[in-house]
Amino acid sequence: MPAIMEKGTIKTLTTHYIDGAFIESHGRQVMDIIKPTNGQAIARVTLGDEEDTRRAIAAAKSAFASFSRTSKEERLLYLRQLHKSVFDHVDDLTAVMIEEYGGVAQFARLIVESGINAFAAAEKGLQELPLTQSWGKTTVTLEPVGVAALITAWNANALFICLKLASAVAAGCTVVLKPSEMSPLQTRTMVDAVNAAGLPKGVFNVVTGLGSVVGAELVRNPDVAKISFTGSVAVGQQIMRDGAATMKRVTLELGGKSPTILLDDAALDKAIPSALTLAFMNSGQACAAGTRLLVPKSRLEEVKRALRDAMRAFTVGDPADPNVMVGPMVSQKQYERVESYIHKGIEEGAEVLVGGEGHPKGLEAGYYVKPTVFANVTNDMTIAQEEIFGPVLSLIAYDSEDEAIRIANDSKYGLHSAVLGTDLQRARRVASQLRAGRVVINNMTDDPQAPWGGFKYSGVGREYGRYGIEAFLDAKAILE
Ligand code: NAD
């Protein structure tokens, strides 16, 4: 039976990917997948249960016995095969991200490409990582930790799967992936790609289902050694708490409320587009989104004018349109969440510079919100402290460089930050004082060898390149 069936225009998925095969779900609960641009059902998915999860864990456990003993060269070959087969699916992965999630075309492709790059980065990271080191009569080896559960969010499905799978395979771990229940079509396309890479059976297993069912079983099961999680703080905390019972190693990639510091020597023709890209990338549904723009009081009015002008180019609409910058929110729930924060901002006295409450005109059918810029925000307001996960930017004025740094760091989060300015020495000095896992200077940029992860409530551990691989390894010493 094919894994995706078309019934009229509704696709049906009833299988999980276990031990190299598509297996009919034991779980019977069914969930509709809703297209964010029009609120119509596009797919019906049968969700996995604890039994499906245990089968997947058993397959991963069995495969671990031999996969954990593969050589570095064998794993490098698997990473190259994965890179090639996911690369071959780049168009399909981009198209399904636009359809199922509402990701805007220009950003969706970047997300998929950074997922593909993760395999190349892991290859380089593994080449450089000494898995065995000896001195005197001591030998230290880095050993794969065991079966790893990969639990992911819905906002960049392809990237999260590639990133976590690349690190796990490089380390010699076998995996059970539980993607967001809102991403089954994207996941299915990714499974096709991974399936073509020729990994040994049982190395990569996938169970689609709810966090409270499939996720909870992965966290509690003693045969799972490691959880690599991307999602919310609340669920991250629960995983850490519940995982302690079976001494799980955890990597937690959680939320953010990232500051962008615009220094007083910034050239606005470059700085404003950078600030808006940071704030509204992935329609604002990005953990790294630079949602607090810190502006020197001396340039506040000028910045407000420049923002108003630049926002005219920030078109909202059909994510398939290559000119559109902001698409719909992923779901009705997410739409309501973002609207409630816009409402709260107005209630707390912030000034609506652009946008505001309600659907943009003509886009009432989908989960579209108005990209919104608030001025007159103080850092203690709810919209400056809580993660909104939508296209809402808050302008916060500061007097001095020291005050900008203090405001930037006055957050429970510490995932990402940006500094925009002309004097690079000064920008670097400011960057060095920010409490965040990553700081970009003058533009949103990426380096797949650089670590990704958060300070404070933004998480525990790092991903990407060598740092990501180390998170799936334990050190073992043999002393003669
Ligand atoms: P979420 O925490 O609701 O869900 C994430 C995943 O956890 C889903 O697969 C879900 O099914 C699963 N889950 C839920 N309850 C669980 C449980 N009890 N046990 C195990 N698994 C469970 O998050 P979301 O709404 O999907 O994603 C949005 C959040 O993710 C935001 O806070 C965002 O900042 C964060 N995020 C972080 C990064 C990063 O790299 N730091 C990247 C993207 C998103």
Q: How would you describe this protein?
A:
The protein has helices spanning 50-67, 72-88, 90-101, 105-128, 157-171, 184-195, 211-220, 233-243, 268-280, 300-311, 332-347, 382-385, 401-409, 424-432, 465-470, and strands at residues 4-7, 10-13, 15-18, 21-24, 30-34, 41-46, 132-135, 138-144, 148-151, 175-178, 204-206, 226-230, 249-253, 259-262, 292-296, 351-354, 372-375, 392-398, 413-414, 416-420, 438-441, 455-456, 459-460, 473-479. By secondary structure, the chain is an alpha/beta fold. Helix 3 crosses helix 4 (105-128), helix 3 packs antiparallel against helix 6 (184-195) and helix 4 (105-128) packs parallel to helix 5 (157-171). It binds nicotinamide-adenine-dinucleotide (NAD). The site of nicotinamide-adenine-dinucleotide (NAD) has 30 residues, from helix 7 and helix 8.
